[in-house]
Structures
1.
Amino acid sequence: MNSPGERGSSAPVRVVWSPEMLGYDFGHGHPMTSERIELTMRLAGDLGLFGHPDVELVGSDPAPDALIETVHEPAYVAAVHAAADHGTSDLSRGLGTSDDPVFPHMHEAAARVVQGSVDSALAVWEGRAEHAVNIAGGLHHAMPGAASGFCVYNDAAVAIRSLLAAGAERVVYVDVDAHHGDGVQAVFWDDPRVLTVSLHETGQALFPGTGHARETGGPGAPGTAVNVPLPSGTGDAGWLRALDAVVPPVVRAFRPDVLVTQHGCDAHTMDPLTHLRVSVDAQRMAADLVHDLAHEVAGGRWVALGGGGYAVLDVVPRSWTHLLGVATHRPVPPETEVPESYRDLLRDRYGRQGPARMTDGREPSFSPWSAGYDPSSDVDRAIRATRLAVFPALGLDADHD
């Protein structure tokens, strides 16, 4: 094993950002608009998160095909090139569907996201950065041979595979998007070096229809896929209880060298595509939790990615700005007023100013699992099913912390 780079207190936090990152956009009317990224970076900038010598803003070139093909089939990469260059749909490869319509420069835009996540992961591994954030990343549905669910290339999977190639022995991937992180799970299904953890709305109600508690990894890697499918309508207390009851124990048991997290914010109550009822305030707490875990178990080596989130004006910029605040060690107090400069931008461009504060006005709290199991609770039954399915394989007691 190659030893990870030494990091000191002067190691910067790396944030992937350049206007070229806005190229990943499926066009007018599609939920996956790059305005989500542009508005986030504008809000975070207006709040002063980037004007510090220990925060490094870096762009990204498109990843070469050989790097993408560490996860994706060469025939699929060729199909994406054809789609980008000639507008050629390939429905068998998920290209040209309503979820993943073909757009000019599709390959270049998706490859740029991949390289941003890979560069971030290697910078953290080599000690050139303490944490790294690529909010354009987190395209967790893309499969080795097909686009899926707004995702062309699976940047998270390529980044994790790059970490393994660089010498990491164990990597944990934690996904709090409302949709199951099926693509990353599929890539590492039978790889004992990678633990994938997904907290999501039940597949009985939401795309992609997977992520059941019984999905626990392949025959060569039992217990390395952890899925918490939550009932539709789950709010802050249940969502945070599930996160706390599952994520810290399995991460600690696996003892990763690096923590990679996906922060899709579509679990929010205002998201138009999902049915969970989570607040920006709870999402901020989730970012705090995984940040603390990275320092506790992985020497601070943390790569944070974006993902889903389709309440473009009211939710996504605030949620991801909180993520950036946590990652840059300058957390934004919830009661902070949204800067007038940012609200003026929203008014001039969209005709309304959006939320006035960085909070939804909630003070999320939850009862820890150690307080006891409630068999009448749908959320508790979901948590217990996950713990029973996977905890024993990781050497954990499913009934007690």
2.
Amino acid sequence: MKWKRKADRAPLTRDRKIIHIDMDAFFASVEQRDNPDLRGKPIAVGGSKLRGVVAAASYEARVFGVRSAMPSVTARRLCPQLIFVKSNFDKYREVSDQIRDIFYSYTDLVEPLSLDEAYLDVTESKRGPVSATLIAQAIRQEIYATTQLTASAGVSFNKFLAKVASDINKPNGMKVIMPEEAPAFLADLPVEDFHGIGKVTAARMHKMGYRTGGDLRQLSEMEMAQRFGKVGRHYYRIVRALDDRPVNPNRNRKSVGAERTYADDISSPAVMKEKLDWLVQKVFSYLVERDNFGRTVTLKMKSPEFVIHTRSRSFSGEIRKLQDLKEIARHLLDENVEEVPVVRLLGISVSNLEREAGDAVQLLLPFEEE
């Protein structure tokens, strides 16, 4: 049954009921569901023994340190018994559509973040109980009954807290943070567990003596900005549970990208990779500067006939290492260079960012690298 969807927004108050649903090891779980021989075994979706990158890893593989966006050779070294499974994004999208139909049966205010993750505002739900906690439980039960896959959920009065909560009891768990519980919860939360604070920034905070939300809460907004730059004002708000972002059903995917048109067409794959590495460095530097990483990488190639080809790859976790982003970009190029053997333009972008960053950012670069 297809449910009618509207684009209305709920009022922004502490009475809002926000759910964040995150599927557990989605790509890998779909493959294990469809192939009983893979159940209980460490698997990596995407890549191969010798090349490529991991799109997603099962929980059995994560025990060994295998993770999304990791080069396949590294994953194989960490887990010699790792089983590589070819990705099937058409199948994952089909399952994702089933899950979203469940979401839309409860509310029109659904903000998908990726195939396996979404925010829901159930302040005024279409059906089910009044309690957001009971709605989240019902949604998880319906997802399992429909897809035989498990989901984790976070429930709170704003998006930030719901997102953080959904990670607390993974996999196949749920965490509820009530308004009166939020100050104490955030005061005790390690800075590395705050959504939007990456590993590099967390390590820097540790060196400065800030280890929990309570430590950060001692700083004024000006002090936050002085220590951490523009993003410090964001940190000031989240440690106080201040997040008035609405669940936006019309959300545009924000991205950071760079592209370059070359004076002479390029036909050498080696030269393409060299040029692509340079673009990746520019994009990654921007992401690091803002401590805002993403999960989807898109390669853009324009032929001498001005035909544009784009290819994307999504991952279950943010890409936080320059080498990982290079490997992903190069792999996308290898997969498509036969289709576009000569290019006059190359571009790379990262989307599905941790934090919405206003309009999409296209880095301004000169016509051709000097």
3.
Amino acid sequence: MLDVSDEVRAEIGEEETERLLNGENAPGTYDCTSCRTPGDTGQEPTSTVLFVGDETAVLAFAHAACIPSQVVPVAESQLQGAARSMSVSGGEQAEAAAPAPVEAAPRQAVLGITCGLIIVEDQLRPALVVEPTGPVARVGAEGGGDDFLPLLIEQGFVPQLDLDTRPSALSGWSVLLAMGKLHAVLQPGPGGGPATAWWQAHQPLQVSDGWRAAVSRSNEVYVYAGPAGSIGRQPREDLMRDALARACARGQLVAATMPLSGT
């Protein structure tokens, strides 16, 4: 029931692949890294998804109906934060083909992003709402705390104290839209190098016509972020704004205005 693609197999090696397929290092139950609902490798087809940074690789699991088995490049800073916050159940550390530690992660914290429109200064503005699926600890930190907001503030995000106010601009960051679909949120590269993906869609995300029309007017996106459990996935935009307002009132919201990259 477990699918390991050729590209994932090449990264983790034949020995680790066989251990997975034989059930020795499979998670059993897991939270799907795509839809974030429970899955079971013994009951339903499951994809292995390998998130790869510059120095770290994390093996996660997803419903095969959600995404195929694949290797997903991500920013090292995002990957290390996720690796620190994982709750590993029955998994042993394995070595990848590259010198990168691979951990079985049935409950990996990943960044969830919701697209929506928000009224700010009496105009509809395109927004992205970012919330991880679990606590994100600082690399090297002990005690299991959640450093998601402090880490973002260090990157230039600003605490949002009033939803009716435009978030501050964040230099060097941008939102990548290509062929009308959301691909990534980009951050400055290390040492002034090319931009890297802070968040990257497993598959390009379709955005609504209204969202695309709003962003085409301003060429900028309001990006709001809160720690795990502070906002939630809301089915309507009015409910999303209410959830943002509650997080704002609790001091659990940071934000930034980013230019649009692409079309």
4.
Amino acid sequence: MTYFQKLLEILVVSTKLGLTSFGGPIAHLGYFREEYVNKRKWLTDKAYADLVALCQFLPGPASSQVGIGIGVSRAGTLGGFISFIGFTMPSVLALILFVFLANQFNVMDAGFIQGLKLTAVAVVAHAIIGMAANLAPDLKRKTIVLFSLLATLLIPHVLTQVSVIVIAGIIGWILFKGIQTTQTESFSIPLSKTVGAVCLALFFILLAGLPFLATWMSSTWISMIDSFYRSGSLVFGGGHVVLPLLEREFVPTGLISEESFLAGYGAAQAVPGPLFTFAAYIGADMAGWTGGFIATAAIFLPAFLLIFGTLPFWSSLSQNKQMKAALLGVNAAVVGILISAFYQPIWLSAIGSTIDFALAALLFFMLAYWKLPPWTVVVAGAIGGQLLTLL
């Protein structure tokens, strides 16, 4: 098979996954394993598990980073980009089109928008319960959850979230240094340590430098890129956690209304692919098609820099007990941040009556206990919201 044929194969397979992978990052990893490990034998089950371990260790969209890593292992750096495009573009295009239709027909006051907001209540509640069980199983981590919740709820600022994550990492390093964790082995990848070091350096340079550049230049575009890049750099625990970061970047400043933000979040549940593509909706709502694609590039750029930067060093990094201990504290803090976002803005803006709560409870039950696909829950929420207008 020629190199071009490999790239074409990656594009076809990843696009198929991008069109059909509903259910969030855990479901995506299941689809990936079935397609890439069981069906196509592109890598072994153990190599896949090692790659998943690395991507869960890093901030950012874990499923997208796994897809990028598989593309790199198959066809080098270009293979990683092609894999990302195939998996991500279907949902990006769908959400940008949703913005266009919503603005064209002025549907933000329609009943189904309220239904999408109630769907967001059900989806985030389900995510919180699952994450809390896995990431805060003991009293120490539950306490970290509580104080992270209190800090982000009482001091609603993006610097609070960053501070909470840093402090939780330090506390985790202190408390959990002796905890036993699963050992992993290195994942072979055709990237040099020089490339890795450059990517990691660029990641931190942009993270520190973009805020200063945005202030100095007073450019709306630079400010938007900074906000999306920073959000993509600070998300541990999956796509749902990007919600509070994006909400506090764009809603208080009036760049996007709270109603439009939550409607888009509900719509993002209805499309396959990574939830990080919600950035495309926000960018398109702010600045049209161009804004949608720039927002997508900005929020996913940290994922590329981190996966390219850490793959060459993963063998030693994965065995570092101090890093693992710090991550236990960070993951617990993520749960607290998510609960804070669940209350404000999701709950306060969506639940306004008994009937709202009843519909949200029904949607939650459909997702959590009847195990219905997320897209069917979104459709049910939209229909239910529209029916509420008739009562």
